[in-house]
Amino acid sequence: MKITLLSLLILSSQIYLSHAQKCNPQDKKVLLQIKKDLNNPYHLASWNPNTDCCSWYVVDCDPITNRINNLHVFAANISGQIPDAVGNLPFLESLMFHKITNLTGTIPSSITKLTRLKSLTISWTNISGQIPSFLSELKALTSLDLSFNNFNGQIPPELAQLRNLTGLRLDRNQLTGSIPESFGELTPSLQYIYMSHNQISGTIPKGWGSLNFTLIQLQRNRIEGDVSVLFGKNKTVDQVDISRNLLEFDFSNLEFPESLGTLDLNHNRITGSLPMGLIDVENLNLNVSYNRLCGRIPVGGRLQELDYTAYFHNRCLCGAPLPECN
Ligand SMILES: *[C@@H]1O[C@H](CO)[C@@H](O)[C@H](O)[C@H]1NC(C)=O
Ligand SMILES: *[C@@H]1O[C@H](CO)[C@@H](O)[C@H](O)[C@H]1NC(C)=O
Ligand SMILES: *[C@@H]1O[C@H](CO)[C@@H](O)[C@H](O)[C@H]1NC(C)=O
Ligand SMILES: *[C@@H]1O[C@H](CO)[C@@H](O)[C@H](O)[C@H]1NC(C)=O
Ligand SMILES: *[C@@H]1O[C@H](CO)[C@@H](O)[C@H](O)[C@H]1NC(C)=O
Ligand SMILES: *[C@@H]1O[C@H](CO)[C@@H](O)[C@H](O)[C@H]1NC(C)=O
Ligand SMILES: *[C@@H]1O[C@H](CO)[C@@H](O)[C@H](O)[C@H]1NC(C)=O
Fold first, then answer.
1. Cβ burial 100-126 (10 Å sphere, 16+ → b, else e)
2. Range 6-13 average pLDDT
3. Is residue 248 part of a domain?
4. Residue 296: C-alpha distances to residues 253, 255, 311, 312, 317 (Å)
5. Does the residue 312 lie in any domain?
6. Which UniProt keywords apply (predicted)?
7. What is the atom index within ligand 2 of the atom nearest the CA of 102?
């Protein structure tokens, strides 16, 4: 009798447990494969085959379908490559590998099977090689972050085919070549773009004049020519950093939107004088040091409140906060 009761109890608890397992068996199989391919890292110790994978560390299940929709691996002591098996989690919407210095190799092409993927972050890793053009097949992407890796070669022109992007980060790699001409027709939904700290050369695409960015970071590259198309009264730009490049254009007649916050153009070859319109920008945080500017700093707005280092090392800028003009 006791034995029967006990076995009943065990049986019912097993039934209960299997009902409580929300996890999709196929997803569980794939996750265990990923764990194996990453050499069973301590970071994934909670990925126990006997438990519900929806409760595992660094993954989430969709509350309705119970399919794995997020996989966010970060700050992990993991060595090796991104497993091909990540492409077999068809309901993934967000995939992240962040701050894993021992993650090497390239991005596997199996990732293109993730047709629902909205956010892809591979950052602060040692992943290298060219940025693969097949990423342009991930049409649902709204955010692509490949910053702080060892990517080299040119930016693939195909990335401009990602029409739902709101943000793109390619900063802190070793990218070379110029910004592809196709990037002149990036989607109007794009709000921010980071390409700083690379070895990008050439000019910015002409089409950037009709885009509606709020943030552009291109500092520490070898970009040359004129970037005045980024400015104008009808723009919505807030933060622009193109410092430490080879820009060469006349600054004198530019107009700026009221939305402008940060404008950092230090260490370029910009000529002309400071435009009067700068005094109307309420929250301006300007740095035009180390250029070839000349003439009196307009009086008004925030211009006299800025530190003199925002203006120093120019050809002949003068007036507060720099010394008086002769
Ligand atoms: C990372 O894992 C390896 C192998 O498991 C181990 O030898 C090493 O000490 C770990 N490093 C850190 C920083 O935890
Ligand atoms: C990276 O790998 C090296 C050598 O295998 C190991 O000593 C180190 O602890 C690992 N570091 C991290 C943060 O994973
Ligand atoms: C990762 O990159 C860092 C810095 O770029 C380097 O010092 C380190 O040796 C690399 N580790 C591996 C495993 O490639
Ligand atoms: C792109 O965004 C629109 C609007 O949010 C959405 O209807 C469409 O399904 C998205 N495209 C893809 C491929 O996900
Ligand atoms: C701003 O105006 C220019 C010329 O009038 C136009 O080509 C551009 O598309 C406009 N930009 C925005 C963001 O409205
Ligand atoms: C530009 O972006 C701003 C803020 O995101 C938005 O309010 C505005 O309608 C956009 N303008 C155009 C022309 O797309
Ligand atoms: C402007 O940039 C220069 C060069 O990087 C720097 O030395 C200076 O501190 C900056 N000044 C301000 C006010 O940002």
1. beebbeebbeebbbbeebbbbbbbbbe
2. 53
3. yes
4. 14, 17, 11, 13, 6
5. yes
6. Leucine-rich repeat, Repeat, Signal
7. 1
- Determine the average pLDDT of the residues in 124-147: 98
Q: Whose CA is nearest to atom 11 of ligand 2?
A: 77
Domain assignment present for 34: no
- Whether the pLDDT of residue 303 is over 90: the answer is yes
Domain containing residue 309: CATH number: 3.80.10.10
Instruction: Give the position, in ligand 5's atom list, of the atom nearest the Cα of 236.
Output: 13
User: For residue 8, which phi and psi values (nearest 5 degrees)?
Assistant: -60, -45
Proximal ligand: closest to the CA of 173: 3
Determine, yes or no, domain membership for 284: yes
The answer, yes or no, to whether any atom of ligand 2 lies below 6 A from the CB of 77, is yes
pLDDT in tens, 40-81: 999 999 999 999 999 999 999 999 999 999 999 999 899 999
Q: Whose CA is nearest to atom 5 of ligand 5?
A: 234
Give yes or no for residue 236 having a pLDDT over 60: yes
| DSSP one-letter code for 203 | P
- Mean pLDDT confidence for 116-127: 98
Domain that holds residue 251: 226-326
In this structure, the dihedral spanned by the alpha carbons of residues 273, 279, 283 and 285, taken in order and rounded to 10 degrees, is 20
Higher-pLDDT residue of 132 and 8 is 132
Burial 57-92 (b: 16+ CB within 10 A, else e): ebbebbeeebbbbbbebeebebeeebbebbbbbebb
153-176 pLDDT tens trace? 999 999 999 999 999 999 999 999
Which residues neighbour 51 within 8 Å (Cβ) at sequence distance 6 or greater? 21
For residues 284 and 305, the answer to whether their CB atoms sit within 8 Å is: no
Number of domains in the chain: 1
The two structure tokens encoding residue 109: 């092409």
Instruction: Count other C-beta atoms under 10 Å from residue 18's C-beta.
Output: 9
